[in-house]
Structure formats: C-alpha cells, structure tokens
Write a structure and sequence with these properties.
Blueprint: E1 11-16, H1 22-26, E2 34-40, H2 46-70, E3 74-81, H3 85-93, E4 100-106, H4 112-118, E5 128-129, E6 132-139
C-alpha cells in the first residue's frame, strides 16, 4: 500500500473512546488520508475483564470496523486496543507511521485529555506521543 504517497494525504491514527463519531470527527479527515482506527477495550472493572474480556474485545473490534466504514478516508486497519489509551496509541504507532493522532472523546470525558497528556513524552502543554501530534475531538453524544 502506498501510504504517504498520496498528494496531501496524511497517515492519521484515529483512537475512539466513543461508539458514534458524529460529524465532528469526520470533518477532521479527508478522502486522501490513510487511517488506522483503534477502539480501546474500556469501561470494565478487573472482575468484569476476567469474566468478559473476550466479549469486550469483540465489541471493540465491531465498533472499530463500523467507525472505519463511516470515515471518509481510506482505512488500512481497524481493531481493538489496550484499555490504557496512551498504551493503545503507542502499540498502534509501532505498526502504523502516523503523521497525526486524533482521539475522539465524548464531551463528558474531556478530562480524558489530561490522562493522555500524562502519557505524553513531550513538555507540559504539548500534546505529542512519540513525536506525533495528538488532537482531541469532542463528540456530542446523541
């Protein structure tokens, strides 16, 4: 696949903690972008994880596949990621050379941005992971 060879196209890692992207995230992407979608397996306690990890993982994969189809860009991969979003991002960057990371969060989870920033390897106030800029998009729950 000619990732990065498309004029104007970017490699964008999309990490979504919400199941419906709405127009706010779709507006951030272009048809010539190359995208990898990761949906962290979140929202479980330790006991839930032990009992339902396979079901939660499968659900995250289904959500990632559906979101990938809704995006205007070309998706090269979609799947579940670690519950720790910063770790999910680092794992995805190991196999996908992203130019930008877009994290979709619900308006209620906007403090999630601080949690990601704590996993950043850049100075305070700069949202970067492994020198890739991180942008947050708040999605309005419908």
């Amino acid at each position: 696949m000619g990732a990065g060879n498309t004029p104007g196209g970017r490699n964008v890692l999309v990490v979504s903690t919400v199941e419906d992207l709405g127009t706010s995230l779709r507006a951030q992407l272009h048809e010539d972008d190359i995208v990898k979608v990761v949906v962290p397996v979140v929202g479980q306690g330790v006991l839930d994880w032990l009992a339902n990890d396979e079901r939660a993982f499968s659900h995250a994969v289904e959500v990632a596949d559906r979101l990938a189809e809704e995006l205007p860009a070309e998706t090269v991969d979609a799947g579940a990621g670690e519950a720790d979003v910063a770790l999910a991002i680092r794992d995805a960057l190991a196999t996908f050379p992203a130019d930008e990371i877009v994290v979709a969060v619900s308006r209620e989870d906007i403090d999630f941005e601080d949690a990601i920033a704590s996993g950043s390897d850049s100075p305070a106030g700069v949202r970067r992971i492994e020198d890739v800029p991180v942008r947050f998009v708040a999605v309005v729950d419908r």
